Amino acid sequence: MAERNADMDESVTSDRIPDILKMGEIQSDFAQKLHTDVIDPVTITQQRARFTLSRVAGFLHSDSKITLGITPLTTTQAFYPLNVGVSNLIQSAQLTIGQEVVCSVDDYSDFHAYQSLFVTNENNKEREQYLSQRCISHAPHYDNRIANTTDKPPNSASKVGLDLGRNSVVNIANDVGATQLFPFQFHDATSAQTVEDAPVYSVYLSDLFPFLKQNRLPAFMIDDEIHIDITFKSELGSLGAGGTARSIRMCVGGAQNETVAYQINTSECKLIYDSVSYDGDVMAKYAADREAEGGVSFSYVDYRLAKRTGAQAAFQNLTFPIGGNGRLVSKVFFGLSADANFTPRSLLNGNNYKASSLDHKLAVNLLYNDLFEFNTDRSNPSLLFHTTQQAEGEVPMVTKDEWKIGGTAAAASNALTPELFMGYAPSTTATGLGSNFNWIAIRPNKGQRVNNKGMDLVYKNDTLGGGNFTLRCYVELLKKATIKDGHFSCYFA
């Protein structure tokens, strides 16, 4: 892998990137000052919000965040899709410095669903469910909490379910368990909860713009204004069975009203940003670098989305142009969602990605520079899982039955629990977690710039069934940024 990516890696690391711009440990003798500001958007509606930063005194910290919430309604109890949390409110995000678009991402909740695959159980349980209401940690579930398992030993735990750190509510009459979100996680005004009591969650800037995970943004070197533009999802959408307009932003419990239009609580939408500065000599040195010949430069990644919508026939033998013309492409990842699964009466509300079957009905490949990435199309689900792990450098934190097809409540082999969570069984496909986390990632190994023909995704799947589907493919592109004389510029590597 290292040898095959040598050319691409050299292009990334050849920049003169100051150590202080890189995320990670800093020298112990640095005196660090942290300043926190809370600002309101310069404009905000139910459709979009814009934040503007000017003359930031230091480095923009990657853990800066945007807070979001919805106005609870008296007609229903609502919660965010479990795998993306409050990020489900966002349709797209864009970071602009001056007139330069630094990075952008479309269909953000889908993009974030892929990111969420690699968050550990510990982080989900101990941090994310409180910060973003992303509640997708797992734990074994004891069989004696499930109906018709009275013959199981008391210490038998053959199923896996969601784990929030709270006990199930068990119906003593039939020993059936059920789990709920914590009370503070409900968006509910049916009782004493008021708008002021509604939970407010946050989205990290480094999740919106992943290049901030590797590089600090030296905002103090930049004279241009920094803009963060957020476009929100529509309140209602007509995807799914019957074409009925349903809530896109939220999930609802059980048989509650699914046609409610939830609105952004505009008074709670704020940018909480930290600026980090160091000893005066350190700051002066790097401020002087921007005036030097060549200025300060660094590399980062940006993403472009290509998507295709259609019935099953459109995906039986698809060669899909995904772009990358003349670019250095470092990664490609894609997932297929079913329009029928866009329903708020579920745990994911459309943020689900249909798995391949065990009989290898899905086959994928990449074609670029007149060569295929793999000698033969990859179809084995285990090999595709490994390919994804290899591309990301981390193991996806999902169970087998969330990754592959065939996970239903009736399947004896399904390891997901039928114990209800918010009124839905995780073991099911339509409303739960079964077979709904199938993202596939490929890292091109040839280390070559893509020619002007661009990249094609070869996607063959003939087991989708009825209805319409959407294939989303994100292409990770290498870019370079330069700060010189107070002005920011960026271009594709």
SSE blueprint:
Blueprint: H1 6-13, E1 33-39, E2 43-44, E3 48-53, E4 59-60, E5 65-68, E6 77-79, E7 90-97, E8 100-106, H2 108-116, H3 121-131, E9 138-141, E10 159-162, E11 169-171, E12 176-179, E13 187-188, E14 201-204, H4 205-208, E15 226-232, E16 236-237, E17 246-247, E18 251-252, E19 270-277, H5 280-289, E20 296-311, E21 318-323, E22 329-338, E23 362-368, E24 371-372, H6 381-392, H7 400-403, E25 420-421, E26 440-442, E27 455-461, E28 468-484, E29 487-492
Parallel strand pairs: 12-25
Antiparallel strand pairs: 1-19, 2-3, 3-15, 4-19, 5-14, 5-19, 6-13, 6-18, 7-8, 7-15, 9-10, 11-12, 16-17, 20-28, 21-27, 22-26, 22-28, 23-24, 23-27, 28-29
Architecture overview:
This protein has 7 helices and 29 strands. The N terminus is likely disordered. With 493 residues, it is mainly beta. A hairpin with a 3-residue loop joins strand 2 and strand 3. 12% of the residues lie in helices and 32% in strands. Strands 1, 4, 5, 14 and 19 form a 5-stranded antiparallel β-sheet that branches. It has a 5-stranded antiparallel β-sheet with strand order 2-3-15-7-8, with helices on one face.
Key features of this structure:
32% strand, Adenovirus Type 2 Hexon, domain 4, 29 strands, mainly beta, five-stranded antiparallel beta sheet, 493 residues, disordered N terminus, 7 helices
Briefly note the CATH topology name: Adenovirus Type 2 Hexon, domain 4
Q: What would you call the structural class?
A: mainly beta
Mean pLDDT value:
83
What profile does the largest beta sheet have? Answer: 5 strands, antiparallel
Beta-strand share of residues? 25-35%
Which oligomerization state do the chains in this entry correspond to? single chain
Number of discrete helical segments = 7
Overall 3D form: globular
* Count of folded domains: 1
Helix content: 10-25%
Number of strands: 29
- Are there runs of 5+ residues with pLDDT below 50, and where? 1-14, 170-176, 407-412
What does the radius of gyration come to?
24 Å
CATH class equals Mainly Beta
Alpha carbon gap, first and last residue = 21 Å
CATH H level: which superfamily? Answer: Adenovirus Type 2 Hexon, domain 4
Query: Architecture, CATH level 2?
Result: Distorted Sandwich
